[in-house]
Specification:
Four copies of one chain form a homotetramer.
Chain A: H1 13-17, H2 23-31, H3 39-62, H4 71-95, H5 105-113, H6 116-131, H7 139-147, H8 155-158, H9 161-171, H10 173-198, H11 209-220, H12 233-273
Helix pairs in contact in A: 2-4, 3-4, 4-6, 6-7, 9-12, 10-11, 10-12
Chain lengths: 287, 287, 287, 287
């Protein structure tokens, strides 16, 4: 099929195509709007995204001592978000049998419960319930608070970004392993060389090879904080050559990722709309 | 059409093609020289660009205390530039009906007045007139002075750069949204992790998640000022892994933008001149 | 040939293809598993990789004063790794005549012994034996310890990365020489200019042109530690223009390397499997 | 012509092709070896490159106070290099009429004398002769010394790099002007914004818009020395957004340059060897 379907999301078509839907099916479609989502399903989708965004913002803002005065408000928003996510989680469990890959009945629900996205959903609400048992102002309590940020990953469900990234990592895994291997080898070799030549001049900073590696990563990624740098002439020569080499090598994984990313996006675009050969009219999309 | 039209801008052709132009049309052509601009129209174009350049330079130089002695000169140049831009603005308003998209008469003028470029033109002269009402040496006065720099955007009218950038952003909006989303997610997650592991060691620097985000942006873009960096071993491990990942992810939007930019420029070149097959003489441009 | 051979590494085929192998051949295949490695050969391959990894980790960890208490354990692992590598080295020498390029008999062994990979293998074990003659805590002893890290290069034998990098460097040597030449010329010219304009203001930091070059490399690679930077207005202007130019020029070798790398990987993939046209079944690989 | 001529530089062919060469022609060929250089011409070429390299190294090393003891040696090498370059310069002037583009006789010589490369050659020897009139240890004397480094540009004559860079800058001038314009606009706008929001908090560092621009260039190129950075919350927000945008925009000129560079190199390679259509056998190289 290579007809150019209009991109605007076909707001009305959802209601005519499937006239007889069970309630479970309707709830499932509300939670997982497909290509032909109805306007209500799209609206609900935006609502969930909004709750995630607000909830993540609250986690971030709650960490600011200046905003401690708003803490009661934050707590209320947090509670609302967690109840919302809890209902969403249970609804997803209930409607899991609608997804073919998991199978029907309780077995399907159990299988779904251990899928990656279901675990992320659970992780997004669990800290709230666990925090009820922890004393406030303890390390555990603070870590639980921070851990709520796992909700950022819930965006992945509503946006294709994480899926695309995953497919890029998969399709380019060979190139990435090779180039990341080269990068890591350069970090290890460079850091060891710097440890050898700078240890005597700066015994505290280049105290060991792992400590040197902090210099290596910060330098070869060109971050260059300035907390660690060579002071001896031979150290500067080694660092200079390393960083000139490093700029070239560190561009490899980034370049491979960028290339794979744009290729993957072009491919998924092609699959959506299809592209016809201008001569024979046959589809040009790769199968 | 794939004839190779000579690139030099066809200085003389403008006068023959349209022998009967109204005054309004002539003024409009002076302000908006098209492909077949007459030499006078081109000269006037260069003049406006020059006034913008000088006027922007004055805003920059006027901020230097060392050059306070030249302030009277700067004020005179500024006044001339503003009067020049004011006449230009009024002339553009008057000739707006010549542009088909806005329609004729006062309705067309009103519609034009609310277009982006007209608002930029207005913003370029307004601070001068408003400053007459403000006391000098107040914050408002200084902000008004700085705001005059909006004139830099007037270049966009005389140069295709902003138009091209806009089209690139539009055509690649999907890829850019996905990759910028990934970048922001990495910043938020990384900064929160760093807040969790470094807050106890550096309670002032990593005082909250937003404060941590300053570290996140400065590090993941590889700027690395050195005002904020981890000091604990676990913080350095988290930062090292983050920045190795970040170098790859942050190259995504830049790569997509660069790819779209050169593609867009190639496309606009193709449309201008066209390219013929050297053997059969048929157009090679994609359509 | 463009049949899609299954990627999983053909675990069983090795035993049927060559029913009559000499012991020397068998040992050689164990050390150098080809495309059609048997499961035992693959297992042994993983084992060697593991020993290299553990041995490199020990070199890194042994440099940490905090882990001095584990030194006896590290020494035992180190001794085991060296004996393992020694046996491997001797076995490789013994089986060298199986590799056609070196020729048979002792002449082949001698030629093999002076090949790059054999020298790396020797360098990986030599420091251990030499250290027996050196007093501990001397500089020589420490350097010998660090030199053991040359084992990282042994990975190159078991992974295609170094081979690919080598071929990229070879195929793009012309472009790389030109672009690296431009980069070095920019470093020299920029550093000399900075020496000329900043020497009077910072006689200690910009003490000579080579000292200036440390600034040049750190700045033009955008590392920017912050230990050396211009303070005078003219120095900042020179540095600003240099770094704006430098960002463009320094991306050249990285871009060429990345381009060559992905091209080389695509080429080696094509050669392995080939790609058929889905319609006519003919090979689509370039030849 | 699209036969694949062997790349090795055809050492012997030079003597047979032109059996009757005048002395002026012979000297000219020695100085400007073409595609079919004789071995002696190539040897002389390497000799000149060596003298340039040594002479540039002497300029660099002479700036080091530690090596002041070798100054007499450096002076002798310098004198030899200058005499060598002087003879080369005069020989080039004498043989200039052999180059068709300049025309014959003294008019050709005069025209050559004002060509870019001839001026570079003159600039490489002039400081030495001028320094004889200047007192040592004066600023003029030191600047003359540093100026000798212009000899680096003489490499451009013996290597295609500068020529290629020039052609890339020419062919991509439109894209480069647009993207560099965007980069400069971002620097100006960002720096002005930072001046507005940080001037009150750091009146010394962000003292004026040009001073802010130092921050802008250092930050947007991701050098990030750490001598200038925002301290206020609003300044950090502006800087964070600027640098996220800047990473994308600053990659544009670099990407365009890298793309044009590799394209130009591919084109010049094609022209040398030629590439035939596999079907009709006609040349595919662009004319």
């Amino acid at each position: 099929m290579c007809q150019i379907v209009p991109l605007p999301l076909g707001l009305w078509s959802g209601w005519y195509d499937m006239p007889m839907k069970s309630w479970r099916r309707k709830v499932h479609d509300l939670l997982e709007p497909g290509e032909q989502a109805s306007p209500w399903e799209q609206l609900f989708d935006v609502l969930i995204l909004l709750v995630i965004l607000v909830s993540v913002s609250v986690v971030v803002l709650q960490s600011m001592p200046e905003l401690a005065v708003y803490d009661p408000l934050f707590s209320k928003i947090e509670a609302f978000a967690v109840y919302f996510f809890s209902v969403e989680y249970l609804a997803r469990l209930w409607t899991a049998p609608e997804i073919e890959t998991y199978g029907g009945g309780w077995r399907g629900r159990l299988r779904y419960a251990f899928s990656l996205m279901a675990l992320v959903d659970l992780a997004a609400i669990l800290p709230f319930y666990l925090a009820a048992f922890a004393d406030s102002n303890t390390v555990v309590f603070r870590l639980l608070r921070v851990f709520r940020l796992v909700r950022v990953l819930k965006f992945g469900r509503y946006h294709s970004s994480i899926g695309i990234l995953g497919r890029v990592l998969l399709s380019r895994r060979e190139e990435l392993v090779v180039s990341v291997g080269l990068v890591l080898a350069l970090v290890v070799i460079t850091s060891t060389l710097m440890y050898a030549v700078e240890h005597d001049a700066q015994p505290k900073v280049f105290s060991s090879i792992p400590a040197s590696m902090w210099w290596g990563v910060v330098t070869l990624t060109t971050v260059g904080y300035g907390d660690v740098y060579p002071v001896t002439a031979q150290g500067k020569v080694v660092a200079g050559i390393s960083v000139l080499l490093g700029v070239g090598l560190f561009a490899l994984p980034a370049g491979i990722l960028a290339g794979g990313f744009s290729e993957e996006l072009a491919r998924s675009k092609r699959e959506e709309g299809g592209k016809c050969c201008p001569h024979c009219g046959k589809s040009l999309s790769e199968e």
